[in-house]
Amino acid sequence: MPDPVRPGRDSDSLADVVELLLDKGVVINADIVVSVGETELLGIKLRAAIASFETASEYGLEFPSGTDMEAVEAASDRRRERSVTPAANPELSPSGDFAERDEASAVSDGDGGDGTNDGGDGDQRSDRESANGDGDVSETSKEGEATEAETDGGGE
Amino acid sequence: MSSDDSGGGDESASSTRNGRYLYCVVRRDDDAAASFDVSGVDGAPLTLVSAGGLSAVVHDRDEPYESDETTQVRDWLYDHQSAVERVGETFGTPVPFRFDTIVRGGDEAVRAWLDANAETLNEALTALDGRWEYRVEVEWDREALVDRLTEDDERLAELDDRLADASEGTAFLVEKQYDRRVSELVTERRRTRSASLDEELRRRTAEVVELGDAPQTPLTETPSGPTARFAVLADDDERDAVGSYLDTIADEDGASVRYTGPWPPYTFAPDACAPTGEDGPGPAE
């Protein structure tokens, strides 16, 4: 019998965190609760934003425009599969040390991810749509420059 | 309760709410409480509010956290998450609250709520004791699946034969039938695979919840193959048993497996808890 597959936290874990913290957990139905409904809204906005954010960070914001989407997808699938291999990464201690957090921050600090989301819900939603559609890699990779241009040039 | 102009942003008005942001409920442990030093969302210092044998982990907060900035919200989520985990390290598996759960009425309201829900919470803590949540996601490679299915299926073999000596027009129709049959088979295979996964996980863990086939936060554009997702509640041995099982299926039908955790048992927390009874939120603004 080989070693059992050890659970870990790969870079997709943000999705788990979002789902766990926004969809699950005890909900109090009582008049002592401040604004129950707003959490749902927060969840929707966040999902939209995170979907685009994660897509961007997963692809490293480094792909030149015109990158073959299928190749990227295949690569990301392979990465997922790799997280299964028994040996590596028994990061079991619930220490809450999210390796990907730093990585993600680094990405977001330098890129236009924030900038593109600044416009409010409308923007976030359309962000997500484009992230789900075709050609998002080129969009993603352009984000850095594009956003700067937008903000400087008065995108209002 | 909240007056019409509650959005006015008057700080002194909002602070009369005396709000408490809730992280989780744990078994009361006064020794551990004495050296309790954990920070929460945005670095807020956490405190324990105890009633009977239960403690709630809270910080002072009147308004829900809200932001349009992704990185900001993401950091809040991580803060919340790691606070709950830190608490769990000391106090044992907690009953976690949903993000952004805030009650008004100060520590008193929290105590009243703990009292009113003591039975539910105690039962939950007992059931969760020593166990954590793990997430299992299996995605089958559609092409590998199709390859396998086409080998085995008589109907497809027959359509294949017909295709070989069909005219162009007929070929088009036959191809459509072929595709439809493949879709049927894939769907069916996902269903049976998913059902057997469910069964095998149940056999090895305390509890299993099926999560449906698609994450609510899609991280790639399209799921590339049929997927099954589960949350399981497991102690260390059960965790390893699941791991061993997952190892055996990792290559079937080009399956790739994602196995994450341990997480605080958000999915296995009691659904909803009763109101406190009519304590009243205190004097109106």
UniProtKB/TrEMBL annotation, chain A:
GO cellular component labels: gas vesicle; vesicle membrane
Compartments (UniProt record): Gas vesicle
GO MF, one example: structural molecule activity
Record field: compositional bias (Acidic residues): 146-156
Xref: Pfam families: Gas_vesicle
Keyword DNA-binding: no
Domain of life: Archaea
Protein's UniProt keywords contain Cell inner membrane: no
Basic and acidic residues bias locations: 122-131
Annotated segments matching region Disordered: 58-156
Sorted UniProt keywords: Gas vesicle
InterPro entries xref list: Gas-vesicle_GvpA-like (IPR000638), GvpA (IPR050530), GvpA-like_CS (IPR018493)
Signal peptide limits: none
Family: Belongs to the gas vesicle GvpA family.
UniProt protein name: Gas vesicle protein
Lineage, opening ranks: Archaea, Methanobacteriati, Methanobacteriota, Stenosarchaea group, Halobacteria
Automatic annotation (TrEMBL), chain B:
Keywords: Gas vesicle
GO cellular-component term (any): gas vesicle
Subcellular location: Gas vesicle
Predominant location category: other
Spans traversing the lipid bilayer: none
BP terms from Gene Ontology: gas vesicle organization
This protein's record includes keyword GTP-binding: no
PANTHER family found in the cross-reference section: PROTEIN GVPL 2
Family according to the record: Belongs to the gas vesicle GvpF/GvpL family.
Protein name, as recorded: Gas vesicle synthesis protein GvpL/GvpF
Biological source species: Halogeometricum limi
